[in-house]
Write a structure and sequence with these properties.
By secondary structure, this protein is of the alpha+beta class. The chain has helices at residues 2-38, 56-59, 63-82, 88-94, 97-100, 134-157, 180-192, 206-209, 238-249, and strands spanning 41-44, 47-50, 52-54, 112-115, 124-126, 166-169, 195-198, 214-222, 228-236. The chain contains 9 helices and 9 strands. The N and C termini lie far apart (71 Å). A 3-stranded antiparallel sheet has the order 3-4-5. Strands 1-2 form a two-stranded antiparallel ribbon. Strands 6-7 form a two-stranded parallel ribbon. It has 3 domains: 1-33 and 60-105, no CATH class; 111-211, no CATH class; 213-258, no CATH class.
Length: 258
């Protein structure tokens, strides 16, 4: 009986360690989701406002329930292993954050809202029921994409002492998204998340061009044999243009723009 009790205690200790580790992973990724919302904050009329909102209060479990849910989940996995229903590959998959986070959050209740960028207001709308103009929708999607990029980078790098730079390339977003007030919010989220934006496009309004410190303009000219030559004209703010010229003379060229 003593031997069986020792074995039972040993197995119980292993189970407790697994539950604790799995719960720790789930809590970590729950905190990452909180960080996702924080990354969407920009300055609006002198105050930091979140552009994205998640209803954590409605779906987060208490510590007691989270531990109970995780314990029950781990016990179920152990039973499935004992009867041979799952192998090592399935077990690893079932212990990934995608599964574990469901034990600390009721993911079925999770709702995502994003602000509609209007001239006079920034009202939240449900992500799956966005009602806005084409330009407003594009701006909302760009903002969400920038926040998502930063969120993924933050998880992968996990460096609190470094705001890593990122690059986003968008093919000609200037058609419907041509209003100054839209680019004002896009630029704010780019600056906050240290994202460089590169956009090929045409017929861009001068009020929007000011958000791009460096512009490369394609030019056409006819050569003496009637062939069309394509050139590149660089336009930039004076201090940036001076820096580019110095770097060219030094044999190196490094261009940064938002």
């Amino acid at each position: 009986m003593e031997m069986h009790q020792k074995q039972a205690d040993s197995l119980k200790s292993v189970e407790e360690n697994i539950v604790a580790q799995a719960l720790g992973i789930a809590m970590l990724y729950r905190d990452y989701l909180h960080k996702f919302v924080k990354l969407s904050k920009i300055d609006v009329d002198g105050t930091l406002e979140e552009m994205v909102r998640i209803n954590f209060n409605d779906c987060e479990y208490s510590e007691e329930r989270a531990e109970s849910e995780m314990r029950y989940y781990i016990q179920e996995l152990i039973q499935e292993i004992e009867v041979g229903n799952i192998g090592k590959k399935e077990l690893i998959n079932n212990l990934t954050p995608a599964y574990l986070i469901n034990k600390v959050l009721d993911m079925k209740l999770l709702k995502l809202d994003i602000r509609k960028i209007d001239r006079n207001s920034l009202k939240f709308q449900r992500w799956e029921r966005i009602q806005a103009s084409g330009g407003q929708e594009n701006a909302m999607y760009i903002i969400f994409l920038v926040v998502l990029m930063s969120y993924i980078r933050d998880i992968v790098v996990d460096r609190r002492d470094k705001n890593t730079s990122k690059v986003l390339v968008i093919d000609n977003p200037f058609g419907t998204t041509s209003s100054y007030y839209l680019w004002e919010k896009i630029w704010a989220i780019l600056e906050r998340n240290n994202v460089q934006l590169i956009c090929p496009g045409h017929k861009i309004g001068t009020n929007v061009m000011e958000f791009f410190p460096i512009n490369h303009l394609l030019t056409e000219e006819l050569s003496t044999n009637d062939r069309t030559r394509i050139g590149i004209q660089v336009r930039a703010r004076s201090e940036i243009l001076d820096r580019i010229e110095r770097q060219k003379r030094g044999g190196q060229l490094s261009i940064s723009m938002y």
